[in-house]
Amino acid sequence: MILLDRVTKTYSKAMGPALNRVSLHIEPKEFVIVVGQSGAGKTTLLRLLTREEMPSSGKIIIGGIDYDKLKDKDIPLVRRKIGVVFQDFKLLPNRSVFENVSFALEIVGASSHEIKNMVPRVLEIVNLKGKDKNMPLELSGGERQRVAIARAIVRQPRILIADEPTGNLDPKHAWDVIKVLEKINRFGTTVLLTTHNVAIVNKLKRRVVTLEHGKLTSDRAHASYKL
Amino acid sequence: MKRRLITFGRIIQTGVLNFMRNVGIAAAAIAVMVVTLTILLMSVVINSTFSNTIAQITSKIDISVYLKDSDSQTQVNKLLSDLKALPNTQSVQYLNKQQVLAQYEQQNAGNQQLQLAINETSNPLPATIHIKTKNLNEIAGIKSFLVKPDIAALQSNPPSYSGSLEKAINNITHATNILRELGVIAVIVFAVICALIIFNTIQMAIFNRRDEIQIMRLLGASTSYIRGPFVVESAIYGILAAVASILIINFLFVTASSTLQATTLGLLNIGYANNYFDDHFWLFLTMQIVIGIMIGAVSATIATRRYLKFKIK
After folding, report:
1. How is B129-143 classified by DSSP, letter by letter?
2. Mean pLDDT lowest for which of A76-85, B93-102, B152-161?
3. Considering the entire predicted model, what is its pTM?
4. For residue B255, what are the CA distances in angstroms to B53, B136, B249, B251, B288?
5. N or C end of chain A, less CB within 10 A?
6. CA of B212: which chain A residue's CA is closest?
7. Does domain B62-161 match CATH 2.60.40.1170?
8. C-alpha angle with apex B194: B191 to B196, nearest 5 degrees?
9. Is B216 at the interface with chain A, CB within 8 A?
10. Mean pLDDT (whole number) for B242-267
11. Hey, what domains does chain A have and what are their CATH numbers?
12. Which residues touch B177 (CB under 8 Å, ≥6 apart)?
């Protein structure tokens, strides 16, 4: 599903590589947690997967698509196959919960009927039933993050990338978000979660990939983690 | 295909919504576009009005060639056929001495002293050829033919060129050419200013909506989906400016002519301009809208290309 082969990303020679010859293979329907301190290269890794960045060297293949051969005009098509959840939610403040989620469907040309059908179902999955008319500012941090997850999964992507989705949340709301991600994974979506929340990593008991100073230092199934 | 139509509909809808949100920022762009389109349409109408004035005066002008009494009919016939063969000749009319006299008497029917004077002498008026030209600006060809020695030998007096009218026509032609050139320059200058202001307006809109655009990109919106609403929004500026320019010109020609209570303003025949504008109203409206949309859409396309960078680092 996701293959990285000796991927290096260097922003400036003076600072050294943000990612250094990272190789990683993620199977379909896997739930993988990427851990590491701030500056370890987690966000760079996710930005490479969403094609916001190009690797300095190495190969990336996602869902059978070789990024080396991907043309600029085809980038949107790849992004539509990947759901992304951001640490800062990236919700549109002047649109309601329903509109924020439907936005992801609108840009791919979904009909009004499809939108009316899909959005309530997804809001139910993320436990936001009845909040569809609320504006983002009227929601708690956890609820906003669940709106972001609903937006990421409404197009039923095969891969969901969550970049520190619990970073701005208190433990209770953080755990609500993680439970939603687990639920989505049970439906068959490959989930790639980055976090430095030790409690979440240890409780989830999933495959853990550790990044340190841009290098992949460990890759273990059902691991626990210490900072 | 259905999804494309839905997406197209959403682009239009978003463009209209954005226009309503940004109408304050867009006012400057629309105002300059109104000036550009008004100058353009004014140039077209004034140019046509002057062309009409020139055509009308030209049709009244002829060249009169006065023949000698001694010219034989064979010489006259050859001269007539040679004149007809000249490229700028529209028509040639031959009047013999009696016909010229009859015409003269008819023109001066009220002047009895003149009638008496003519009757007391034998017919002093020469047989005359009246030549009408196709284009007054190319009269030189006929002039040079008439001054050839063998042709001049057949004439009793130098030909008449309706001199004062020719001068007036030259003045109008000169004024029309200057106005046409000024119009083209003004339209180009204002179109460029207009494009720059649209660039600025779109840059501000992109800046205001940079978060939304970034999210759209990350969610997989295509370039055309992001750019489309900006193009639609600018095209709406063009449509509004086109309608405003038509209203302004309508006011100038219709209202001003009735207020001034005159049919001409200097060399400009307001009556004709008014009728010309009325007759071609729908054509002009369509032309203005098409040009307005083009200025808006092309400017927006260039501006979004410049400010929305889709290249990946």
Report:
1. EEEEES-GGGTHHHH
2. B152-161
3. 0.67
4. 22, 34, 9, 5, 21
5. C
6. A92
7. no
8. 115
9. yes
10. 75
11. 2-90+157-220 (3.40.50.300)
12. none
